[in-house]
Amino acid sequence: MILSAFSLEGKVAVVTGCDTGLGQGMALGLAQAGCDIVGINIVEPTETIKQVTALGRRFLSLTADLRKIDGIPGLLDRAVAEFGHIDILVNNAGLIRREDALEFSEKDWDDVMNLNIKSVFFMSQAAANTLSRKAMAARLSISRQCSPSRAGSVCLLIPHQKAA
């Protein structure tokens, strides 16, 4: 059957930001295709864990604030210690701060840029050695469009992030 050509049986996928939304959907899709999942989130992804394990796949939950990059290599070391390898990295964790430009603080700027740009680079860098040893390894970074949901709010950093 043609679907067997797309099987990811025996693969291990690291998915950041998989507690809700796109990340949760990608973690579930990868699990349905046969992947075990390493979820890296700022909160415990209870519902995602339940759904992935219901599919008969294993789920390693690692809690971390990816705005702080110093812990990233250790996270991937824990994933490799648990599963022996990493085949797929999905950089999905992201942050949107909807704020008037006059109210946007340096901390807001740093939080958004550190998670949406800096962590993607350093997660990819930390995973590069593990992924590059495998013939069929993949890395995927997710970017979102932003539409204001309330009058007067703006998504200041979206164009800057896309340019970076």
Description:
Belongs to the short-chain dehydrogenases/reductases (SDR) family. Its EC number is 1.1.1.127. One of its GO terms (molecular function) is 2-dehydro-3-deoxy-D-gluconate 5-dehydrogenase activity. InterPro entries: NAD(P)-bd_dom_sf, SDR_fam. It comes from Escherichia coli. It is a single chain. The chain is α/β, with parallel strands linked by helices and 164 residues long. It has a single domain, classed as NAD(P)-binding Rossmann-like Domain (Rossmann fold, 3-Layer(aba) Sandwich). Helices cover 40% and strands 15% of the residues. The chain has 5 helices and 5 strands, in the order βαβαβαβαβα. It has helices at 21-32, 46-54, 72-83, 106-132, 158-163; strands spanning 12-16, 36-41, 59-63, 88-91, 138-141. Strands 3-2-1-4-5 form a 5-stranded parallel sheet, with helices on both faces. Strand 2, helix 2 (46-54) and strand 3 (59-63) form a beta-alpha-beta unit. Helix 3 (72-83) runs parallel beside helix 4 (106-132). It starts with 11 loop residues before the first strand and ends with a helix. Residues 145-154 have low confidence and may be disordered.
- Low-confidence sequence ranges: 145-154
User: Tally of extended strands?
Assistant: 5
**Order of SSEs:** EHEHEHEHEH
| Spatial strand arrangement across the major sheet | 3-2-1-4-5
Radius of gyration: 17 Å
Number of helices: 5
- What portion of residues is helical? 40-55%
Major sheet, described briefly?
5 strands, parallel
CATH fold field value: Rossmann fold
CATH H level: which superfamily?
A: NAD(P)-binding Rossmann-like Domain
